Amino acid sequence: MAPVVQVPAVTTERDLRLDLFRGIALWLIFLDHVPNNILAWFTIRNYGFSDATEIFIFISGYTAAFVYGRAMIDRGFIIAGARILKRTWQIYVAHVFLFSIYIAEIAYVASSFENPLYAEEMNALDFLKNPDVTILQALLLKFKPANMDVLPLYIVLLVMFPAVLWLLIRNASVALAASVALYVATWEFGWNIASYPTGHWFFNPFAWQLLFVFGAWCALGGAARLAPALRSPITMWLAIAYLLFAFGVTLTWYFPRLAFLMPRWLGEWMYPIDKTNLDVLRFAHFLALAALTVRFVPRDWPVLRSPWLRPAVLCGQHSLEIFCLGVFLAFAAHFVMVEFFGGTAMQVLISMVGIAIMVGTALMFSWYKRIEGRRSGTPKRPSDADLAGGEA
Amino acid sequence: MKKWTALGRAVATCAIVLCSAAARGEPADVCAVPGYLLFGDSLLERVSAAVAKDNTLRIVALGGTSSTLPGPDGANFAYPARLEAALGRRLPGIKVTVAVHTMPRKTAEEMAESIDKLLLDQKPNLVVWQTGTYDAVRGTDPEEFRASVSDGVERLQTGGADVVLVNMQYSPRTESIVAVGAYADSIRWVARGREVPVFDRLAIMRHWYDAGQFDLYKATKDMKTAKSVHDCLGRELGSQIIDAARLESREGTAPRQ
Q1: A-B interface: how many C-beta pairs under 8 angstroms?
Q2: B13-62: per-residue pLDDT in tens?
Q3: Domains in chain B: ranges and CATH
Q4: Min Cα separation A338/chain B (Å)
Q5: How many angstroms separate the CA of residue B196 from the nearest CA in chain A?
Q6: Residues with Cβ < 8 Å from B192, sequence gap 6 or more?
Q7: What is the rounded CA–CA span in Å between residue B72 and residue B64?
């Protein structure tokens, strides 16, 4: 049963825009995760509805389809599926590693911090009293501390991905329609995965899969299909208008005195803008950003190869490692600010140092990979893995 | 030794008095809060009506552990008591009472359920409702949290009370452990939808911290900072209530633009 391959030429040359924007998204996620960081004001979440998470998940879906889609066409469902699950396992291990760092930080805070002002906040440390339950729940991905929600989402998305990819290759439109249907049903019936000790997943995988599958769909020819629409000036002006609107709305959140500018009916219709279930307004905001980006940053733009953008591109090419490093660095930055000094100068310094460490590490991974490739002397490695830097 | 300290204090006090007299009109107010952190444009009409009608103002402070301070007399230094003192000072001739209803380790949902009884028992004109911290600690669904707060506010309004919502404290030490952002957003959205003011404790305390007013990072058993913070919270909350109810008051804090 040879697959009916009408997969429109998965272009073989790596799209550097993906690496660039994923790298930038990783930096922004890091800046957002450093508590009380003045530089977090530069991140896009303060200027509209969506934030770096959307970029990260979309591009991850795109690259996953790019890498494993080719593998599935060339070598079949089993091989590609096994490779996807291997990747999932790596991400799970990374998540558990981050969790252990988190536990270390909490235990430290619990033993060193006392302040009558914060008795209520200290309840957060209660789970240290019964590690038997907590650690088990963490391994089951049910207990997810602050800022550690993205990897579990990614894990679930990848577990579903072999089946999704199979369908995408056979009939991309049906796959996308199924994804939209799941999204709608999730909103309709309130599906989500339970968390420990209470509540649900902060990033609902049944809703966020829409962005991931949409990314994959774009990689497998959807982008080419959308190209005429993206070139139209109407799309451009719609996108600009929507981004300005979102910016205006966001302003009223930070300056309550401006709230009168916001008509009541509009607020009633619009709020709450739900991050857990990937609100349509957030999705649309991401689409608008993406449409303008694709229009103004052409694929063959020479600047993409300039040394100035190289650091971000490098980080984007090693996204799993750099993402985990970013979460760790955010913990470490918080620690430094608690122990020494948390003023503005320190926040700027720590953010800069953090990004420098991320870039340095990405550079090291690239170098390591290059020498590994040379030494092993197996030029017959699947080209796609190299192309995507083994990253999906 | 003690005598010298006392003398030093007296000199310092004089110096402060002289300085503030010199900089008349702009006394240094440690509790000062920039204009954009204030209530916004929601009015407290039931409060205005109660004060106009019989010169009384019955307030209930409903909240969790962060609405009080530990220790046998902690409650006397916590912001509800400080609010009562501040309003008493600034609204002479009006009988202001602030009853405290602390519910430790209760989520917004559990608090909302207690509201009917609270209305019946206390008949408040205004309820200052602090919530969100324990929900953030527990990881309640932000959406469920929003629904509970909205339900609570509705019950209060139907019961004839004005509402001021108070959000989380700014707590730099636990920032990477307890993620409060989603809950602060929920409170803001409920406030917008039901047209009640929010006392943005999170942003206000953060402002004080950034401005160097209070060291909120410090690990200490000492109550000094905690007491000053609560005093400022009470005073600031009082000013904002006076503004939002359009009450005639004596100036108690620095004039704000």
Answers
A1: 150
A2: 444 444 444 444 444 678 888 887 887 778 899 999 999 998 999 999 99
A3: 37-244 (3.40.50.1110)
A4: 6
A5: 12
A6: A259, A262, A267, A271
A7: 17
